[in-house]
Amino acid sequence: DYILVDLEENQKTPPWATALDFLEGCRARLEPRGVLTVNLILGDNQAISEALLRIRRVFDNETLLLADPDHDNLLVLAFASAAPEVPPAQQLNDLGMHWGIDFASLAGRLTRLAAPLSA
Predict the structure, then answer these.
(1) Which CATH superfamily is domain 2-84 in?
(2) How far, in Å, are 35, 48, 77 from residue 84 at the CA level?
(3) Which of 8-12, 20-24, 41-45, 52-56 has the highest mean pLDDT?
């Protein structure tokens, strides 16, 4: 299953959308292979860091981050289980030809974030 959080309030992601209780509720509703995607639109690096830390604390498995240099938002994909591996380049190219999407370019912009270390 899939939960998408793509909201903005005054051109920013509302604080409740990355609050621990909201994120924990999302995780509780996901099946083991489920994924939460959050479109983060935050004004400064500190706010982004804090939101990512909360997401990574709730989703203790790997999290993927997709940034687009032409946009201010970040897509965060948080998996209920381990994040999947990126398919081989040839498979990405084949899928891209079929769907008309440059999957290889998207995969090149993915960053895999490991779970934060326990304090």
Answers:
(1) Vaccinia Virus protein VP39 (3.40.50.150)
(2) 11, 24, 11
(3) 20-24
